[in-house]
Write a structure and sequence with these properties.
single chain, mainly alpha, EamA_dom, membrane, DMT family transporter
Length: about 325
């Protein structure tokens, strides 16, 4: 965090304080980005096509009681419209988690992490259409670069049709865009406490998952899935629940009080870099030379698009377009991965 003008005349030890505090806040936020980047591989390791809703029930059954206990008083303070609005957002969130989890089962962890990063491009594009505002040419160029990168990324083994998992992750990126825009435009949830909003959304999403596993032919039940888990599977599930959701959410809430939301957003925007690194280093993903070129283009395009959008958006739109995917809990109130 840069020194303020008021601190310029202070002794060197005092002027270093804010920067040191900013760097201290940066470290756990960057760790959240690493954790989120690794979440695709973790989800892929504990989930099969037959156990997606069951694993989601198990995962958030660990998270919800903690959120309810911590935020009980604030939950009781929510108004009826806020409960209903958060519940609707939770239905969209359920769709996102389902698309993401089914998607990562059917594609590589590297592809999953990079394709979902297109949300950073889709959200400003969608918001510009809703608001009737023309985006600068630089942003459109960045968006085109990202789309080209995804096209190459999914063709690492030669030019073939994208896999079903790739298309599901693309659908998840679109659904995340819808979620961000809905949250920004729903009057009922504006001003709602972030922790309470997160809890109601996750509760609504878990209700959807529970209904799905109860349907005939929906796959394994949570109990059957849990019975088949070995020690590694349980570790993966706890990692997704404790670190990718609880740890991530509370670190964000801690960090935005000690640094700027934009700084938090920028650090968390490195998530696709870590997703690619983890997929290649630990999962043995080999996207081929076309895939590597595509991965670089996605990262460059999303970073460029983010910087253009942040530079050109006004104070009002800053609250609605700031990094999607739960990156600024003070303004979004959405959960971690």
């Amino acid at each position: 965090m840069p020194d303020s003008p008021a601190s310029a005349a202070a002794p060197p030890a005092s002027s270093a304080g804010p920067s040191a505090l900013g760097r201290l806040a940066d470290l756990p936020v960057l760790l959240v980005a690493v954790v989120w980047g690794s979440s695709y591989l973790a989800a892929k390791g504990v989930t099969t096509a037959d156990t997606v809703p069951a694993v989601l029930v198990l995962r958030f059954a660990v998270v919800l009681p903690v959120l309810v206990i911590v935020g009980w008083r604030r939950l009781r303070a929510l108004s009826g419209p806020q409960w209903r609005g958060a519940g609707v957002l939770g239905l969209i969130l359920a769709g996102i988690f389902l698309l993401e989890t089914y998607g990562v089962v059917h594609t590589s962890a590297t592809n999953a992490g990079l394709i979902i990063s297109l949300t950073m491009v889709f959200t400003p594009l969608a918001e510009s259409r809703v608001r009737g505002v023309r985006l600068p040419g630089a942003f459109m160029a960045a968006a085109g670069l990202s789309v080209l990168g995804v096209a190459l990324l999914t063709q690492g083994a030669g030019f073939t049709a994208p896999s079903g998992g790739d298309l599901l992750m693309l659908g998840a990126a679109v659904a995340r865009t819808v979620h961000v825009l809905a949250m920004a435009r729903m009057d009922s949830v504006r001003g709602a406490d972030a922790l309470s909003l997160t809890t109601v959304q996750l509760g609504s999403a878990v209700a959807v998952f529970a209904v799905l596993v109860a349907l005939p032919g929906a796959g394994a039940s949570p109990w059957a899935a849990a019975a088949d888990f070995d020690g590694g599977d349980w570790l993966g599930l706890v990692y997704l629940s404790v670190f990718c959701t609880l740890f991530a959410f509370f670190v964000q809430m801690w960090a935005v009080r000690r640094t700027s939301p934009s700084r938090v957003s920028l650090l968390l925007g490195t998530e696709p870099v870590w997703a690619a690194a983890v997929g290649i280093a630990l999962a043995g993903d080999r996207p081929g030379w076309l895939g590597f070129v595509g991965a670089v283009l996605v990262l460059l395009g999303t970073a460029w698009g983010r910087s253009v959008a942040d530079r050109d958006k006004g104070p009002e739109s800053a609250q609605t377009t700031r990094t999607p995917r739960r990156h600024t809990p003070e303004t979004s109130g959405t959960p971690g991965r």
